[in-house]
Amino acid sequence: MHIIYIHGFASSPESSKAQYFAERFAGRGVKFLCPDFNQPDFSTLTISRMLGQLEMCMASLPPGDVVLMGSSLGGFVAVEAGADQVSQAHPISRLVLLAPAVELEWERWSELGSGGIERWRQTGSVDVFHYAENKPLRLNFEFYEDAQKYRPAARRLNQPLLIFQGRHDESVSPAIVESFAHAQNDSTLHVVEDGHQLKNSLEFMWLETVRFLSLDQLPATS
Question: Which of 7, 65, 85, 199 could make an SS bond with 93 (beta carbons 3.0 to 4.6 A apart)?
């Protein structure tokens, strides 16, 4: 089993959640990968590019089941990948979603300012604060145009899903995530007393993930 973590928007493999899970999976001897989806340049980020990078990451692995862990925008990408999987060598068997942005709520994007999407369209780019870089970075309007091709909130997946959503999330509407979860064939949703970062729920999410992936049957390594 391979675990691939898809980090969130304006984040990186160095995020606190990615690092937390990397350490825990290493302790169980489970392969954990977290590609840097900011590469080659954040300004040209698109959902299609992320999906292509994810596909290349999977192709580099030995044959075996893949579990996708998606945080925020990474959840958006994980759902699309799970719905459209084509690799027989690397079947996506399960998904773990952390505050998944299955619907991009543009009205919550404070960076767009008073002009909104139309101003972004006219100027061609917008400055977004990148938490990993700790500074604003430019994002091209292509990100918005490309995202319109995808509708993860409407996807109905065959794989089992484990979903964590903060009740006080300031970026993703809990109601949207709840509606998505309830429409799936096999999903477990945990709504926790937390915000978008889910920083206060790390241990709980880990313990539930261990059960979900049956890792409690594996001995912990030193």
Answer: 65
